[in-house]
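How a chain folds remains the central question behind the approach discussed here. The record that follows shows the chain in one-letter code together with its fold in token form:
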Amino acid sequence: GFNVLFADLDAIFLKSPAPLLSDGDIIGERIWGRPAMVVKKWGAAICTGFYFMRSTPQTITIFRKTHFMIASKRKKQPKWQASDQWAINHAVDDEVVQWESPNKMLPINDYHTKYYDYSRYAGHTTLTKTKFVVLPHVLVARSCPILKFGSTTPPGDNKIELKKWKLWQHLLNTSYVLHCFPPNAMPCPPGVKHGEKGCDLSVIMGHASHIHGEVAFDQRQGLWFMRDGWEDALKSPSSRDFLAWLASQYNGLRPGQGRA
């Protein structure tokens, strides 16, 4: 079989993630949101916006189980947005994880854990004998500072924005991948949170509101690398080689660098 690295389109690679993938059979970025039951049990879970699977008979068994879990839930709840994140975390948990550390992963409100802890959280499934690794958040960041002044250095007297700016520079220099969740990207009316009355849509990822939020965030924070007019160029590509065409649409900016 093949080893597989999966990443969402909004996961921005700053450097090769190969060093992150050398030890473990299932490796993923850290998240504190969903599935809530697993997060409550472990302290955090893996986000399937960036995860790696080493091809072994054991991992194949686990991932076949995720397919069954998704199909079974969709049969019971046809409107449910199929979630590989829900299925993979629960499938691993069902295999009974023996963690190397006696303590749970620290919560999202622990500032050091989010941005300055480089330790991986590893465990071993007792039923299928696989090594499961939750990466440190700082190396594949999901929770990112939102910059009021975008890619421009904030005024020297604005201490709050300067602190966020320095943290952003830290992530740009340290992270292998930035998978930032953007603000104002939920398909909800103003003032209404996802899941509340008036915004109970199950579909988030792929919704037009979410895509717009992703693009706006990347452009503001210096993570947008497509030149103006790329959408029109896509209609009549200059090359049938996608990678060559993509390279031709690069706007020349570096991570964290905004337009002049």
Remarks:
- The chain has eight helices and nine strands.
- The chain has a mean pLDDT of 90.
- The two ends are 47 Å apart (CA to CA).
- Helices lie at 36-42, 57-76, 84-94, 111-115, 159-174, 208-221, 230-235, 242-248.
